[in-house]
Known about the structure:
The protein is α/β, with parallel strands linked by helices. The protein has a four-stranded parallel beta sheet with strand order 2-1-3-4. The longest helix has 23 residues, at 120-142. The protein has a single domain (6-161), classed as Rossmann fold. The chain has helices at residues 18-29, 49-57, 89-92, 120-142, 151-161, and strands at 6-12, 34-40, 83-86, 104-107.
Amino acid sequence: MSDRHYNALFLCTGNSARSILAESILNRIGVGKFRAYSAGSQPKGAVHPMALDLLRRFSYATDGLRSKNWNEFAAAGAPDLDFVFTVCDNAAGEVCPVWPGQPMTAHWGIEDPAAVTSSSERQEQAFKAAYFQLERRLQIFINLPIASLDKLTLQSRLDSIGKTNDTQGSAA
């Protein structure tokens, strides 16, 4: 068993909801093997309050979560990245910086729960759906035999995970 850990960066335009959820989930379920970060091309400057509320209800520590620019992860001294995942369609279409570490990339588009404004109940449902979809994808990801897969096979698996649409989970 390898002691190697992998760095993953989750990108979204605003870095206020989906990418923050993904960062939190992977840091919990991948502890010891993965270190997750998140950023945005045009960060909102604050984490969405419903994202924070949901994470707290699921017993996540939220101290230190912040909306940040993706340039932080392209600068000197940034962690070498093994994986970069876009979780929104807008970020997937943007020209990204050059990431240290020559990471593998994949698009794991998730509908934006912050875009739901019809009612607080519907928005809460949207945040839960995004959370459970990300959690399911990340469960699959952390169970990949990364070290034993060639790059082409690993890329295929990462792309396939991005098409996983299972939003099932137990709501709190």
